[in-house]
Amino acid sequence: MGVLPNLYLAEKYYPIVKRLEDAEVSENLVANASFEEGEGLAATGWLTAEAAHEQKGNCTRSDEQARTGEYSLRLVSESPAIYEGQDWDWVTVELRSPFVEVQQWDGVQAEAWVYIPEDLEKTERGALINLLAFDQDGNVIPGWKATDIEAGHAEATEGWHKLTVRGLLTDPAAAKVAIRLAMCGVGRCYFDDVSLMRLRPQ
Questions:
Q1: CA-CA to 188 of 20 to 30 Å: which in 48, 66, 178, 200?
Q2: Structure confidence by residue, pLDDT tens digits, 6-27
Q3: Considering only CA atoms, which of 59, 69, 119, 67 is closest in space to residue 92?
């Protein structure tokens, strides 16, 4: 199946992961996956998050670049995350997809295409995607924002570059998942053609 939160879980749930190799794979469950729907700079259904630390940046729908269609999502960061006077390689700008319903033992695979015109500075993580899991009430399940279930790229790309991340929902409270598109450091990047597929063992 791919990435699990840690090696202990990878070993503990290995039989389930093997079953996912022959699992039923859903269609793309992300609404407005290529950001064609929106009002002005806002992409319909996607939620921005307030900056958690001192930094300057923004996330907008843009027609400057597009892999398909006419629009993509542009992330711009003017400074790294600053905490207690120091620079940190933390997320500076982020956007979250609409919820997708899931259940315990579902596998999930998220993909997004990213275009980075110039190397992102002051970061090793760069432009990234990761999976967030939530309970029925919309509360984040701890552990699902960890960097070991994210995929990122910091160097300039030649055209569009695909990022992929996978996970297994081991928590019995898991009821929803979402994709987080984000960037760290300083610079500009574009996301397009996001997908999330659910893998359910037969």
A1: 178
A2: 434 556 666 666 666 677 788 9
A3: 59
